[in-house]
Please model this.
Amino acid sequence: MHGPVSPGWLLVVLCAATGAYCLLRMRSSVEEQRRAAGGEALMGFGMAAMAVPAAAFTPPSWAWSGYAAVFGAAALRALWAARASAHHVHHLVGSSAMVYMAVVMALSPGGHAGHGGAGVPLLTGALLLYFTVYVLRSGVRLVPATAGGGAAGWGDRPELARACRLSMGMAMVAMLLAM
Model:
């Protein structure tokens, strides 16, 4: 990802930790939670891989096509699942944003998105708006969830799942801004 190295590594750690927690959530006894956690783990680890600073590692040019293919498949799966639950629409937008970022990175010289030109592209601006609103709404919804306490296992704690989604939303905003 284009941008300063230190924030890039912090973004990698945040996304990888989120992906790891989502793997723990896959042990839930509730099938829908397991399914959502799998998609979120893929998103977290994919975001971590894409956020590695270019100064540390520049992926080969074919890697961006691989990212686009993986997240394109995830977007199709989310589109299919969105028929049953509106929550999957967010997964569709997130996966589509990852495809968009991979395509932009593949088409830009040297694997870095350019900052020159006429400002923020329309699709980038729309995705920034969506994820900013999502982060603000998720943050507000997280506050009441932390008030309750229960004896649920790590995979079944709704406040941790919301915090996981909030952190991935913030990471998506940061990645879109860095393009």
